[in-house]
Fold:
Amino acid sequence: MVKLEANLDLVFSYSRKDRKIDDFRKITITCGLIEHAEGSAQVELGKTKVIAGIKLSVKEPYLDASEEGILMVGVTQAEIIRHMSFEPTRSSFADVEVARLVDRGLREGGAIDVKKLVIKPKELVWCINIDVVVVNNDGNLIDACSLAAMAALQDAKMLKVDTETNRVVLGEKTKELLPLMKIITTTTFQKIKKTIVLDPAIEEESPKNCKFTISLCDDNNICSMQKGGSSTMTEDDFEEMYKIAVKKRKELLKILKN
Amino acid sequence: MAQKPKGLVLWNGKKRSDGRGVNELRNISMQVGVLPQVTGSAMVTFGKTKVIASVYGPKLVVPSHLSDSSKAIVNVEYTMAPFSTKERIDPRFSRRSQELSKILSRAFEAAIFTDMYPETEINIFVQVINADAGTRIACLNAASLALCQAGVEMRDLVVGITAGKVDGKVVLDLDNPEDNYGEADFAFAMMPTKNEIVLLQMDGNLTKEECDEAMKLMKNGIQKIYQMQRDALLADYKEESK
Structure:
């Protein structure tokens, strides 16, 4: 047991040799790299690489939200790196968890003004599909995917709709942007034994640790939180993570603005 | 979040739509040993929400190559009966049930002494019979009782509760209209005597102060529910020893 723990520390110190426990890895965002998508962004977080693409379509609204547009997020791992799934027996859960977290962060935080996505009340609304493809997984997919989704939303342009046939005119982007209301930033932590680290790399991620994700919107309000992993946390941990999340929101906003 | 129907007031300054105060729980009932053939089972109701949990194991893992030689595997399966909601729901395993199952199994992995049962699995099944907000928390409380009845060694009972914000007011234990039309919902579970958080999920829009307030309310609520869980277990043992 002692041996195992010593090893864990070694891995931990090695992967953090050139950054502090509350540092992100280098973040690079490239917008609009996919021509066919209405909006797209590629995010590189260290070696983690994800591409988000937005497609618009028109749909009938949901019965319980008849005056609102629809926002959907899907995350898939590219088949080429299927072997890298960190829960190989049930590989799909990791995707579902990331997708649900990104989805809830954007939707509950009100990133998009869904009321402005109505074409004909109770009949026809815009449906925004954000699909994120993970091209390389080097840890912290949640932050990479939500950053990519947010950047793609900023990049996306509206399409025209043919009101007679109720169909989208494909391939004709207008200059109008999507009705963005708020910018959501997501930060994920991993509690390794008693140390809390931001932006865990794949060597630091383990289902045995406690994982914690916070999404913040305007005025540093919390719009989504989730604890993952099979370890526990305390309220003091939460206070500390909230403080770091507020600090990092400024950095992420700066990156998203450029 | 769905649109709030006009004229629905969730918080009028004194009381909530169903007449409760800010920190009042719904009617909660807990019964241990509802399924006689199963080693551990429990039924929990929170207002109109009703769930049953059953526990099988620890037993050897089949197929054995999936087993872990150092600890037990904890599986939770969360299902909703097709008739449990207003609109019939598809009984197939949805993305939501998949997520909740995983969230719940992680909460119990933290609480169970898994290293005492190597090479085994502990299967927990939670079934929602009637859904009226707070199902994941009701399931968690039921599973905690069922595990205890099955004699699985745990660090503490696992106790959960929800809170949320309705019409700008932070309140405890949301009911269905509050969950649907409120501004935030917050699910929270702890091991009360150890003061450690095992489950935390929040969606909506809360300031830090509101979040702290919600946590304070929930910690008080958890103490009450903890006592209820202990009473339910005691009642079961008394029944058995008769």
